[in-house]
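Sample entry (75 residues):
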Amino acid sequence: MDSDQDEKIREIAYRLWEEAGRPAGRDLDIWLEAEAAAGKPAAKAKPATAKAPAKAPTPAAPKAPAAKKAPAKKG
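Predicted structure, serialized as tokens:
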């Protein structure tokens, strides 16, 4: 990209950022909006790499019932 186009995009992006209230964390969104406003064709986004779904935890084996205690002696 030539430096004139870069400068134009920078100026538009700065203006958009100020108009939006100088938000933090929106730099990419604002830059892409500035590129569109400057007439630069949008770059194709890379497809997201699909991740394998997380494995569900294996349930624990059921515990054996506790041994019965003999009744307490009275007396």
